[in-house]
Amino acid sequence: MSLSNFGMGSDIEGKVSSFNSLEELTIEVCSSKLWWDKIVNTVEKEVAALEKLTSLRFCFPEVDCLELFVTTSPVWKKNSCMTFQFASGHPYSTSPQILESFCYASNNSLKLVNSNGVNPIMLKLLMKTYAFGLINHKGVS
């Protein structure tokens, strides 16, 4: 599915969440920054509403967006066995193919890029994470 076919902003509302039986989802950003910046908040809310996800690969623009997913996703709240590959940071400085050097892509991985400080949500994520990458992080000594 190409989100670029749905247009900008409000045109995308309801598109991702309409796939309510979706179990696996990978969202790769291969378009212009301006286009993605206009729809990313809508997309992440739509993804968080999916109740049957078992696998998700997604690049969240900021840790706060990742926190929104973790605190609102029914799948995450149920403490399910969902596998994930998450990246947080500028989408053009990260590859959706998170931590490519790890052999087992189905294992949970998290990559933080260009972030600052420590967000408490990271503790919840790290408890479920098998591979962790910290790239150009500021504020941790």
Topology, please?
Layout: E1 24-26, H1 33-48, E2 55-60, H2 63-72, H3 74-77, E3 83-88, E4 109-113, H4 121-126, E5 131-135
Parallel strand pairs: 1-2, 2-3, 3-4, 4-5
By DSSP (H or I, 4+ residues per run), the number of helices equals 4
Integer average pLDDT: 77
How far is the first residue's CA from the last residue's CA? 42 Å
Helix content: 25-40%
Count of beta strands: 5
Number of domains: 1
Rough outline: globular
What sequence of helices (H) and strands (E) makes up the elements?
Answer: EHEHHEEHE
Rg from alpha-carbon coordinates: 14 Å
**Biggest sheet character:** 5 strands, parallel
**Portion in beta strands:** 15-25%
Task: State the strand order across the main sheet.
Answer: 1-2-3-4-5
Low-confidence stretches: 94-99
> Structural class, please?
alpha/beta
Give an overview in words.
The chain has 141 residues and is an alpha/beta fold. The protein has one domain (24-89, 102-135). Helices cover 26% and strands 18% of the residues. The protein is built from four helices and five strands, in the order βαβααββαβ. Strands 1-2-3-4-5 form a five-stranded parallel beta sheet. β1 (24-26), α1 and β2 (55-60) form a beta-alpha-beta unit. α1 runs parallel beside α2. The chain is globular and about 40 Å long. Residues 94-99 have low confidence and may be disordered.
